[in-house]
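Per your request, structure below.
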């Protein structure tokens, strides 16, 4: 896959996530959003793109858990 295709996929994914978050935020009330205890501080949010025909969300998570811990 060439760089332009990867960049296009990344931009599409980011726009899609943004639109979904906007749609959710416009329909949700604060009381509807589940609360979770944060066990460690975040430094950022990473959007992964496997750029492979076989990469899945589960395979990316498994890689990170196996290499970085849960």
């Amino acid at each position: 896959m060439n760089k332009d295709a990867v960049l296009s996929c990344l931009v599409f994914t980011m726009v899609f996530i943004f639109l979904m978050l906007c749609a959710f935020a416009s329909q949700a009330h604060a009381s509807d959003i589940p609360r979770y205890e944060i066990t460690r501080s975040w430094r950022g949010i990473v959007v992964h793109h496997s750029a492979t025909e076989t990469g899945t969300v589960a395979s990316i998570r498994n890689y990170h858990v196996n290499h970085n811990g849960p």
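The CA atoms of residues 11 and 36 lie 29 Å apart.

Regards,
D.
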